[in-house]
């Protein structure tokens, strides 16, 4: 099969052991990011199987309609960036392993790394030291602080466990079913969403971005946070209403933020206000970007391609597709 892989920024996939699963296929890897439909249609005009790296590129109906040879899209996890109805209509199978019960430990680890970095001012202190300055401020200890987990799923539960290991007091706010799991794990549920935002010293977002969660964090929520509090978002920028976080940080509540996700990605505009704030730690959506996590994810993605090539596709999210 002719296989195309988009958005492999550092040409990493061909170095993974699992890449050998594609032996015998014709593979083309693109290392840059392109949004333009005309450019994508030209790149993918002969592609039969398309590999996506998470949600880096949107696969829309206008693009799909210009790819008559495409038979399979193979990826992992959720797929809000793919027009599934258009795929079904055009006979394109979408295979995506939802990996139930297996969290992204890489994303959970980065979340806690950002918590530590922001609370101890690590990036600011490093930059100051390189500039010839010695200690530019005083950070905060995590032990005894209240860590709030907004959304108690696979990653949120891991972050809660890390917080407990650091001696933090854990409080959860989520859907009722998730709150039940949190209580069963020994964690306290907040009395309300308002009290949750008021009491947390560190508040970390861990929800999927769907219609029900889009802009679930608004200006009123952030205004309730402590002036010393930290908001962490390694999930999706769309969970916070557009522009609200920047305004809240300028107003002083919360006092800090640590973010790995943005309304526009890749974020290449150095004038973005989040990048200019001394009280914000920013990373370029690297939550899942580790060699170990890639090996796990792409072993699944490549298995989906080989299964399709054998005539027995797996993890099909649009089973009514026909060709």
Overview of the structural elements:
The structure is a single chain. With 323 residues, this protein is of the alpha/beta class. It has twelve helices and twelve strands. It has helices at residues 37-43, 61-64, 84-90, 105-119, 122-130, 154-165, 176-184, 193-199, 219-223, 244-251, 273-276, 291-309, and strands spanning 2-5, 26-29, 49-51, 72-76, 93-97, 146-150, 169-173, 188-189, 202-205, 230-233, 256-259, 280-282. The chain has a seven-stranded parallel sheet, with helices on both faces. Strands 2-1-3-4-5 form a five-stranded parallel sheet, sandwiched between helices. Helix 2 (61-64) links the parallel strand 3 and strand 4 (72-76). Helix 4 crosses helix 6. The mean pLDDT is 96.
Features:
323 residues; alpha/beta; 12 helices; 12 strands; 33% helix
The low-confidence parts are none
Strand order of the largest sheet: 8-7-6-9-10-11-12
Give a quick account of the main beta sheet: strands, pairing sense, barrel closure: 7 strands, parallel
Shape: globular
How much is the radius of gyration in Å?
21 Å
Order of helices and strands: EEHEHEHEHHEHEHEHEHEHEHEH
The SS-based structural class is alpha/beta
- The proportion of strand residues reads 5-15%
Output the number of helix runs: 12
- Quaternary structure annotation: single chain
End-to-end distance: 17 Å
How many β-strand runs? 12
Helical amount among residues, as a percent range?
25-40%
The averaged pLDDT comes out at 96
